[in-house]
Design brief:
The complex is a heterodimer. Chain A is α/β, with parallel strands linked by helices. Chain A is built from twelve helices and twelve strands. In chain A, 32% of the residues lie in helices and 23% in strands. Chain B has a single domain, classed as MetI-like fold (Orthogonal Bundle), CATH 1.10.3720.10. Chain B: It comes from Paenibacillus glycanilyticus.
Chain lengths: 334, 299
């Protein structure tokens, strides 16, 4: 395993005391594998990825669990050891390409800075390598772009530059936090194709964080569905779309708009919102939004365990289908 | 700009490329040059610095030489007349430029450097360090500024360098707070996070990625600082707590204007230093405006 997150618990200090943002998350990423992490805003998927990079800021910290990357526990590395890893062994692409590049330096300047840090190249060779990377991510006229400032580039172009920067040091793991969310749909497809192509070329594993199941279907080998700081379902991408077991996953699937939806149909949505971190419901964290919830769900928190080979879920109904009422309860009129 | 000689399409493409590929410095100076007042201000400022440096060669007389003509009106020998002890006003005006330039730029160089480093580190480190530094700046800002300067100057003795030190001592907190404020915003920026995720070291992030982005307000503030320091020096010298006669400073030259008869009958004694103070302060402030526009990459 390249990356093994085990019982990760990440907490943040707030005015209301310590809140747990990620609670007991375990994820494995194999070599060359692309793992997708899906969930609503605030479910802890970004915090999970930031925990891997240890970019949690002043107030956040990994309270329990370990993050094993290439055999080392990242949670215990010193800041300087970690700095060696960042950029070199693992790199990150952020959601907002418009603000991820420093406005006062040229694209080339920033690319070369990244290259200088993690390679033995010098002077002219660095610049040539930078141009080669820009070419690789499909930027036309790379030598002109090298000398432009970020504000002269469009969002899609900037995201390409970010990808070039992240991949310039041939990382083993690429964390992409909603890499296409801020882009136009047409550009999204281009960027996804680009990432797919480069993944094969460089052989990096990708941890892809998104709320877009379409992106997951396109990219991921394995999918982790997160809800309220916990993993609620994990399986390979085919099984997930074929046979989603957790009611939350099912809800996510139903809320994807399709072209063949009848025009009169209202798109289904999951009622309610992710519970606040400071006030988690007892029992199953999803029970107050779940159409299938019973008394047991309100009292006992389900454990995360496999129901079939390679398909784990955190749901009583999915784990004990035979004793469960399979009909969804009537939706109360609001 | 490029050389567009003919109107063929190829040339135009070439021109666009040329503009894109110009260096950061050239781009900035081009934006600065668009600001007409700033260019005028810069020329005047450079001219005054030139005068300060070459004062001994430019001055028509020795500024300390006492002649027999007391309070003489401007003439062909003494272009701006002489003062009450018979010294040439133009020579004194030229030598006084040195005082103003040294006080203005010296003070600012000192306190902007110090204040910027303090503000940067305070904001980036945060926590109790930030808390402590900010309370110290609060303390400095709560002192009755002018009074403390008067006391310190009278204790340490009114020399040029005491003036620079004392003015700097009471000016850095404002810069430190300003820098801290912008760094607090800047350190949340995605490109700072991206820098950390690329494995850049903390000093590199602080000084290479955060500082240049905080530079625009620092520069504007620093130019106002130059003007303010020159004015403070003039004020203190006017009160007799600054540069001491016989050394000439625009401020102590104005002291003469305290008497009504000089005010009304001998304008060549106080008008030139007054105008010089006005001109240099205005010129420097224009330069600041121009630099602010030039540094803003979003323009």
């Amino acid at each position: 395993m390249l990356l093994e997150i085990k019982d990760l618990k990440t907490v943040f200090k707030t005015e209301k005391g310590e809140v747990t943002s990620v609670d007991g998350v375990s994820i494995q990423v194999g070599k060359g594998e692309t793992i997708g992490i899906v969930g609503e805003s605030g479910c802890g998927k970004s915090v999970t990825s930031l925990s891997v990079m240890r970019l949690l800021g002043k107030n956040g910290r990994i309270k329990e669990g370990e993050v094993r990357f290439m055999g080392k526990d990242l949670a215990k590395l010193s800041e300087s050891e970690l700095r060696q890893m960042r950029g070199g062994e693992m790199a990150m692409i952020f959601q907002e390409p418009m603000t991820s590049l420093n406005p006062v330096f040229t694209v080339g300047n920033q690319l070369v800075e990244a290259i200088r840090l993690h390679s033995d190249l010098k002077g002219k060779a660095m610049e040539e390598y930078a141009i080669e990377m820009l070419k690789k991510v499909g930027i036309p006229r790379p030598d002109a772009i090298m000398k432009s400032f970020p504000h002269a580039l469009s969002g899609g172009m900037r995201q390409r530059v970010m990808i070039a920067m992240a991949l310039s040091c041939k990382p083993k793991l690429l964390i992409a936090d909603e890499p296409t969310t801020a882009l136009d749909v047409t550009i999204q497809a281009q960027i996804l194709n680009l990432m797919k192509g480069l993944r094969e070329e460089i052989g990096a594993s990708i941890m892809l964080i998104t709320h877009d199941l379409g992106v997951i279907a396109e990219m991921a080998d394995k999918v982790v569905v997160m809800y309220a700081g916990q993993v609620v379902e994990e399986t390979d991408v085919y099984t997930l779309f074929e046979n989603p077991l957790h009611p939350y996953t099912q809800g996510l699937m139903k809320s994807i708009p399709h072209l063949h939806n009848d025009t009169g149909d209202t798109l289904e949505s999951i009622p309610g919102a992710v519970p606040p971190l400071t006030n988690m419901p007892a029992g199953c964290r999803f029970h107050d939004r779940c159409a299938f919830a019973s008394e047991k769900c309100q009292l006992d928190a389900p454990v995360f365990k496999p129901v079939t080979e390679g398909h784990s879920v955190r749901c009583w109904k999915a784990q004990e289908p035979e004793v469960w009422q399979l009909e969804p309860r009537e939706e109360e009129a609001v | 700009m490029s050389t567009v000689k003919t109107a063929t399409p190829g040339t135009v493409v070439y021109a666009v490329r040329e503009e894109r590929s110009e260096g950061a410095f050239r781009q900035m100076s081009r934006r600065f040059m668009k600001h007409k007042l700033a260019v005028v201000g810069l020329v005047i400022t450079l001219f005054l610095i030139f005068i300060a440096i070459f004062a001994p060669w430019l001055s028509p007389h020795n500024p300390y030489a006492v002649t027999a003509e007391f309070s003489a009106a401007p003439s062909s020998v003494h272009l701006l007349g002489t003062d009450q002890v018979g010294r040439d006003v133009l020579a004194r005006l030229i030598y006084a430029t040195r005082v103003s330039v040294i006080v203005g730029f010296g003070t600012v160089a000192l306190y902007v450097t110090f204040g910027t480093v303090v503000g940067l580190l305070s904001a980036y480190i945060g926590g109790w360090v930030d808390m402590l530094v900010m309370r110290i700046t609060d303390m400095f800002m709560a002192f009755p500024y002018m009074m403390v300067i008067l006391v310190v100057v009278s204790v340490l003795g009114p020399t040029l360098w005491t003036l620079v030190l004392v003015l700097a001592l009471f000016s850095w907190p404002a810069i430190a707070r300003l820098v801290r404020g912008s760094v607090l915003t800047l350190k949340q920026m995605d490109y700072v996070k991206a820098g950390v995720s690329l494995g850049l070291s903390t000093p590199r992030i602080v000084f290479r990625h955060i500082l240049p982005n905080a530079l625009a307000p620092i520069i504007v503030n620093a130019t106002f600082g130059v003007a303010a320091a020159i004015m403070a020096e003039s004020g203190l010298s006017f009160l007799g707590m600054g540069v001491q006669p016989p050394t000439a400073s625009w401020g102590n030259m104005l002291t003469d204007a305290q008497s009504i008869s000089v005010m009304t009958d001998q304008p060549w004694l106080w008008l030139p230093p007054g105008i010089m103070i006005l001109v240099i302060v205005l010129a420097i402030n224009f330069v600041g405006d121009g630099l602010r526009d030039a540094f803003d990459p979003k323009q």
